[in-house]
Amino acid sequence: MQTSQITTASIVTARKSAAWIDRSGWTLLRLTGADRSDLLHRLTTNDLRDVRSGHGKHTVLLTDKARIIDIIGILHDADSSYLLCSPGQKNTIVAWLRKYIIMDDVHIYDASSEYTMIEVCGPRSSEAVDSLLGVSVGGFALDQWCSVVVDGSNVIVTRQPSACEVSYWIIAPTATAQSIRASLHENPSLIPKLSAADSDYVRILAGMGKHGNEWTDAYNPLEAGLLHLTSFAKGCYIGQEVVARLDSYNKVKQRVMGLASAERLHVGMRLYAEATDVGVITSVTASADGSHWFALGYVRGEHAHPNAPLTAGLEGTRVGITQHQLPMDDPTCQ
Fold it and tell me: Which of 113, 40, 116 has the alpha carbon at shortest distance from 75?
């Protein structure tokens, strides 16, 4: 069995207090122009008409066949909108937006190289942010945000969806972000850093998707469990007809399930109910003590039931799988 790369103490602290994650490499776009809100409303799944300055929403950008391009967080200001997008998605999203800007007053600016993002997560993360930046965010609603001056630079602080109860993202000019990271490194016992492996472990156990794994153009938002980001009352958007038809006729053929096994799992393993291929594993992590494996995967609807046994196969091998409702619990990480 491969040795676990999970830092149990840091994960426990994140779940009970606060920890931080380096989110360098995420895409940040800034849209200006009088028609930017209307354009985003027409192109994505959520209803964006009532979003006020200082607030935001998450929404899904789809192909015309209702396949997922990315999940984006939108932060509205009086004269601009910030789009927080997955790493490596800049060119795809900019090209998709420009495809539909015809006579619209919308201008796109790529700010990704100028800013660095830091996530502070956990039930006491608001206290950590207050200590770091001197701003009170404990009363923020999801996607609410504000701007605060740090070292002479404007820094955005926003509450975002979290795998650790609560998360705040700090979006800062790169030099300022380096200063903030230095402050975080000074107190590793109070606010530890989660490694990439730690972060993925927490995400998978919580059942949160990720671009390139659960969020790809192989799946639609209903299959991916993104119903809460999909409005059925807003009218047309790209992919809307397909989404409405899938919902109306109950044609959602698969859904994301939690999976566990005593044997090593791999992304891409096919899932089987007896001899029938019923899905695929999309994300994998070891348990905290390395004794077993957790995963997320798409399972065909009629076979997607907690505790229903499956097997997983890759290159002729088969291992036993137990399905779980999300989120999952790892008894070795307490």
Answer: 40
